[in-house]
Amino acid sequence: MIITVLGSGSNGGVPQWDCCCANCTRARVGLGPRRTRSSVAVSLESGQHVLIDATPDLKQQLEAVGLIPRPDEAVHHRQSRIDVVLLTHGHGDHTLGIGEFSTGKSFKIPVYGPPDLIRFLFGSPGESTFFGDLGRLARNYVMPNELREVESLVLMGGLKVMGFEVDHTDWLEDGTLFPSSTYGYELEADGNRFVYAPDLGLLTDDLLERVAGADLFMLDATFWWDDELKRVSGLKKTSYDLGHVPVEESVEILQSVEIGRVVYTHLNHTNPLLAPDQPMASIVEDAGIEIAHDGMVIKI
Ligand SMILES: [Zn+2]
Ligand SMILES: [Zn+2]
Ligand SMILES: [Zn+2]
User: Fold this and answer.
1) Which residue range forms the structural domain that includes residue 142?
2) Rounded Cα gap, residues 4 and 242, in angstroms
């Protein structure tokens, strides 16, 4: 399978609209790469494409990597090159692009996600919520499907998909997660295994066991330090408060596991990994880990 990084930034992308920190300024003036919100497209030998997460930048991302209608295949000029959508969780940087599919041509694209996420986004029959009704999205354009945790789904081209719960979103007093629980996804085709967890609060032993022996593990690199937002933006929330394991720690933990390729994604604009005058990028490189960029293509 071929994994194309559509976006490698976190919630605000880089540059972030309301920020003039050194990383944002560099990206704004073209001295550093711009990063749209995190998402990947997984392309199968059989020609189909799976989209993991639908970001607010979806339209530009699909155009940028050429996942656009083919004149020789499109009927009346219309074609969806996306065959299936997998959603990790309910935060806006991973879901807002779903509205893009409401364009008057019904492709009935299956959309899978944790059951509480599917209900949060689309509601239930007879009681739809925002995205269910928006432009008749869930009535005409996408087919929401609740995917139970670790339920193995076999899709086109023999692709096996499994969603597994990871720590990221906030627990409420009633024992539910807000706005939804969070999945990482494990995809397997032709004996190759890809694990994707762009928003990840803890690298647990269970997760390390899961990624051991994978051909590719792409994971959360939102913040380098736990107190990064305080250092750069004067905000109180820590990386752990926001459900992200700091890279400073994950880079160490990952040394104990054998994985084909490890790639960091979902970088926040505050992350010193983006600063050429800081040693963080070299620390990651010395650890044998790569940093994703928009448009990066990985074949496994
Ligand atoms: Zn995110
Ligand atoms: Zn910034
Ligand atoms: Zn998130």
Assistant:
1) 2-299
2) 26
Cα angle 6-9-13, degrees, rounded to a multiple of 5? 110
Cα–Cα distance for residue pair 137/155, rounded to 1 Å: 22
pLDDT tens figures, 242-287 = 999 999 999 999 999 999 999 999 999 999 999 999 999 999 999 9
Cα-to-centroid distance, 85 and ligand 3 (Å) = 17
Ligand with the closest atom to the CA of 8: 1
Q: Residue 108 contacts by C-beta under 8 Å, 6 or more apart in sequence?
A: 140, 141, 142, 143
Question: How many Å apart are CA 222 and CA 229, to the nearest integer?
Answer: 11
Residues with Cβ within 5 Å of ion ligand 3? 91, 199
Q: How many folded domains does the chain comprise?
A: 1
Q: How far is the CA of 198 from the centre of ligand 1 (A)?
A: 7
Read off the pTM: 0.97
User: Which CATH number goes with the domain that contains 172?
Assistant: 3.60.15.10
